[in-house]
Structures are given as C-alpha cells and as structure tokens.
Amino acid sequence: MVSRILVATDQSATATQAVEWAATMAERYQAELVVLQVIVPDADGGVEEARPVEPQVTGQAARSLEELAARLAGARGKARVAVDPDPARAIVDVADQEHVDVVVVGNVGMSGRKKFLLGNVPNRVSHMARCSVIIVNTDPSQAFRAEVAAPAQGDGAAAELPAGHLLKRATRIGRVMSKYGVRELFQPSAAADPTTAEEEETGRARARQLRAAMDELGPTFAKLGQILSTRPDLLPPAFVEELATLQDRVTPLSEEEVVSVMEEELGVPWEDVFASIDPEPLAAGTIAQVHRATLETGDRVVVKVQRPTARRDIMEDLGLLELFAEKTKDRPAFRQVFDMPAIIEHLSASLRRELDFRQEAHNIERMRQVLEPYPRLDVPYVYHEYSSARLLVMQEVQGGPIKDAPLGTARTEAARQLLESYYRQILTDGFFHADPHPGNLMWWNDRIYFLDFGMVGEVEADVRELLLLLIMAFAQSDLHFLADITLMLAGEDQRGDIDMTAFENDLEVVLKKYRHLSLREIQLGPILQEMTEISIRHDIRLPTSLMLTGKELAQMQLATAELDPELDPFAVAGQFVVKRLTGQIRDRVSPQHLFYEAQKLRVRFGRMIEAVERLAGARPGPKLQVLFRGTERLEDTIRRTGRRLALAIAGASAFVGSAITAISGNVATWVPITMGSVAGVLLAGLLADLLRRSR
User: Which of 536, 156, 169 is nearest to 324 (CA)?
Assistant: First the structure.
C-alpha cells in the first residue's frame, strides 16, 4: 500500500501540475503528502563557491509551501524546504528521510529545462531513488520543443526565401564590395605575377581589401575565405595568405536553440541521452557549436550541434555566388584574375560536405583504419547511435596542445609516427587530414589525437603512382622525365601550347636545389609546394589533392619539429618511400602473385597465337578486319561534295555549250535551246541541294 507520497516543486506553473497530480493520488490512497521545494543557491563561480541562501528566502518558501500542503491534503499534508546545489540529490535524500513510498516529479524538471549544468532532475531522481518514481507529463504541448524557427532543409532552401530578401542580401554584398574597392581586383594587372616590390605591395593591399570585405559580409563569407585559403591554384599567393587569417565571429546559440536541434535529431528529450551538458560552448562557428557533455552512462563527450539556420544562410549566399559566376564566366576581365566558376564549384562542394556531419563521422572512422599501425596516434570515438546529419557526438579528448606533451620516449615516438603517418595517408591510402593546424592536434594518454574532420583530402591511385615517380625523378635529377610526370599529373601531357623550354628551366631551378640529395633525404612537402607554384605560373592545373598535400605536409613538419626538434624529416620520408617500394617489390615476387601473372600470360599468349593463325588462314574463323570508326560523317561529306561538283561542272559545261552554239550560224536553233534548258535544270538541282543542306 502507498502510505506516504513525496512531490517536488519549485512552485512554477508546470511543477504545480505535478503537485496536483500527486495530491489526487494521495487522496485516493489516503496517504500523507510531503511537498518539497529545493532552493538552489547562486553559484556563478562553481558549486563550491555557492553563496548562502538568505533565511528570509527559505522562511518565505516554507510558509508558502505549508499553505499549499494544507490546502491540498489538510492534516495529511507536510511541507519541506531544502537548500542544495543539486536538486536531484536533495529530493532523493528527503525521500529517504521521510521513508516515502512514491516520489512524484514533473517531466519538465526543476526550473524548466534550461539548466544544462545540473542535468535533468526527473531522470536523475528515477536513477537514484530507492522507491518508486512517477514522472508526470506536465506540459505535453511545450515540454519537448523550444520556441525557435525550424531549420531549413534541402539544398533548395535559398530558393524558398522571398525574392525581396535575396535582393536585399545581394544589394548588401554589392555595397560592401564597392566600399572596399573590390572592383579593382578585376583589373588585368591584378592577374599578373608581381615583378617589382611596388606591384607586390599593391597585390597585398588588394588581398587585404578582399579579406576586409568578406569579414564584414558575415560568417558565411568568412567560411568561404577560409576554404579558399587552401587553394593556391585558384588564388594568387597574397590572397591565400590574407584569407587564412579570417576567423568565425558569430553569436553563440541560446540553450533553447541547442536543445531544439538536439531533440529533433535524437527524436527523444535530450535528458534521455545526456546526464548533463555544459552551458558554455567550447567553440561557436559558422556551421556548428560545440559543447562538453556527459552521457547517461557517465562517458564524457563533446557534442557538435549545427546552427538551425546554417544550411539556409550558406545556401542563400552560395546561390547568389553561383548566379554571379554564371553571369561572369564568359568575361575575360574576370577570368584573368579568378577562375570564378571553379572557385564557386569548390566552395559549394566543400560546404555541402561540412553541412552533413555523417560525412565527418565517416571520415573519422576511415582515418582510424589508416592510423591503426601507429600506436601513438588516434582519433576520438564516435557515438554513431546518437549522431546524425546535424548532430555529432564524440569522445572528449581531455588533454592539451601537443606542445605541452611531457618530454620522453612517448613524445619522440609520436613525432616520428605523426610524420610517417602523413606519408602513408598520401602515398599509400590516398586519404589525409586536410587541416592539421596545432588546434586540431591534441595530446592525451601519451597519444596524439586528430580532431575536426570537416576537411579531408583524397589522392587518386594513379596520382599516387605518379607521385612516387616524381620523387624518383628528383632523386635521379632527370629533368625531362620530371617535366613529363608533372604534365601527366595535370592530365595535360597532350597540350601543344605549353612552352616546354621555359617550364623545364623553372623546374631545373628546383631540381638544382635538391640535386645532391639522396632518395632518403628528399622532403615531399616543400617539393610539392614549389611544383605547384611553377605549374600555376605556366597555366598547368595540377590535381587539387596534390596541391593540398604540399601545404599539409609542410604544416605537419612544423608540428613534428615542435614535438622533437632533433627529428630528421628527410630520414623519415626516405625510409617510408624505400619501405613502400620494397613492399611493392616483395608483393610482386610473392609465389601467389607470380603464379597469377604466369597464368595470365599463358592465356594471353594462347589467344595471340590463335589470332595469328586466323589471320594466316591456318585456323577457321573470322579473318582480320579493319574498321575505321568515326569516319561516317567524313564519307557523307565527300559524297555530297562530289555530287555538287559534278552538278556544277555539268551545268557550267551545258551553259557554255549553249552560248557557243547560239552564236554559230551552222547549228540548228533547237541545239542551244536544249543545252540551255539542261544547264538550267542542273544548276537548279545544285541550288536545291545547297539550300537543303544549309537548313
């Protein structure tokens, strides 16, 4: 039997509904009703620095609560007031002291659902209490949804905005661009490589103007600038350097907005998954906001929540930029400075990937496999059951920057493995972290953890093979083959408008720089960066992945130098390349591979013998036939031209014959008339044929 019931309240409207529900239950069982209010002291500096509650506050709460208990249960009613920074713990303690049979709480929680730090009171009470706990649905219409605008979904979000809104945004973009003189960027001189100090300073000034404009246009353009700073093939060096300094400056999301997105993605109240969430964001960016949190299991995690309007805002600006690129793609003045269609295409693809957190989760798992051979390297664990397109829940890496790693064997081993792993990512697996700045590398539990996989790069298999040949060409100082490999990497080895002499002269400057280095001493990062710069000067477009690798390898060398200043990066790169080449040779001479190649050769040799016998007539079957494909239109053109030529010659001959016979006195009258008629018919046929083909 139920003889004593405890109900917790903060005397808010929703909590009062739980109190009335408990009073009805107490009336039914004629049970005692204990009405409890927990007063939480102010704790701006943390729980341990909580300021004491004034006695008049507790006294007033006690009197109000006694009146409420007497009104609801009469003599069976009892009031309790507790002061505790942890309401859930206070409710459980009072329940034990009063020896209650049932605890009743509202599902909205104490003081609403905004206090992330204290976690969810109802769920925690249900876990800790030794008696039955009833959680009352106090406000089903509002309990599970915050009052914020629903996020726009789908790539067509921008198209659904009012035309006036888009026009207003486009007007603002144009006004800001004019304010900073961005129009000057599209002058032919802006595209030329600076040859004097004055021209170089002018280029840097224009780059600063563009950075200032993108900064003022808001977070979306700041993100666009950050992405563009990774593409030296699309922008001049001064612009790349300046745009890299852009930072996200956004207003953090409110707790209601965070809750709304989380619950839409989880499909349940956030309290069912998380015990607590830190209300202070770790980071707030254009696309997402990150919070520390604790799962109900006790695991410490970080939660990446997409901003509710991120997709709509980004798609709106991308739509305007795509329209601009479409209007300017055929204007030489624009293309001399920037390849605008290529820029917008790259931005669109990059931002669409970053808007889908499932892609980032997939990247993390893929990198985990790549790093498996390296015990000093790792990535955070992803809680896939809680993650979605707009929500990413990952293990919290609780360490610090790699520069603060303690000195010792673990640090030096990690430095070597970090650099070698990047060569493996690029040359073996073709998948690498494309943003390895120090903030995305953390030291914890004697390991380096890679963070933030929103930007990754991929290197195709054929590019990886050519990249190895490029390194070997450097080692052998083979200038001509080096130029050939570079053109093959760009897919432009068939172009005839490249000044090969000038191109090879520029390559020779780089080659001389590395001429006396052995294969073990060649450093891939600087080589690729210099190759990229030379190729851009000669209008040779190397693959995007190859240009990214040069920059990232250079960054990685700086990180490893910070971990272990005595580490020889040349030795690490050389050992890896040699190890990879010997591994390939070992794989090719394995018994299984040799047997496979022998069988393949036997089959192909047999088929070749059969083909030769058929050609010679020694074996029945189809003979050799040569088919010229693609010549049908040429044959039609030749036949048509021959027909027209025959009509023209015959008509002209008949016309000339008619004229000659007409002036002769020895020819009958009907002869020139007949020949003239024939000429007219032939020429009319020629004219009809010409008119028919021209339609």
Answer: 169
Handedness of CA 561, 405, 281, 432 (dihedral sign): positive
Q: What is the dihedral of CA 477, 481, 487, 488, to 10 degrees?
A: -120
Task: Please report, as a single letter, which amino acid is at residue 238.
Answer: A
Place of tokens 């030529």: 645
DSSP per-residue string spanning 312-339: HHHHHHHHHHHHHHHHHTT-HHHHTT--
Helices (H), 249-403: 255-266, 310-328, 332-335, 340-354, 357-370
pTM of the model: 0.58
Tokens matching residue 100: 């209650």
Q: Are strands 391-395 and 300-306 parallel, antiparallel or unpaired?
A: antiparallel
Who's near 609: CB < 8 A, 6+ residues apart? none
DSSP states along 458-517 = E--HHHHHHHHHHHHHHHHT-HHHHHHHHHHHHT-TT-SSS-HHHHHHHHHHHHHHHTT-
38: helix, strand or coil: strand
Strands 300-306 and 288-295, bridge-based pairing: antiparallel
- Within 13 A of 415's CA, how many CA atoms are on the CB side? 23
Tell me what pLDDT residue 641 has. 83
Contacts of 108 (CB under 8 A, 6+ apart): 14, 15, 138, 139, 143
CB 534 within 8 A of CB 507: yes
Within 30-54, residue ranges assigned H as helices are none
Six-digit token pair at 432? Answer: 């690498």
- Give the whole-angstrom CA distance, residue 255 versus residue 276: 13
Interval 653-668: pLDDT, tens: 888 888 888 877 777 7
Highest-confidence range of 117-126, 497-506, 660-669, by mean pLDDT?
497-506
From CA 369, how far away is CA 588, in angstroms rounded?
24
Dihedral angle, C-alpha 687, 689, 690, 695, nearest 10 °? 130
Instruction: Answer for the pair 540, 498: CB distance below 8 angstroms, yes or no.
Output: yes
Give CA–CA dist 295/393, Å, rounded. 10
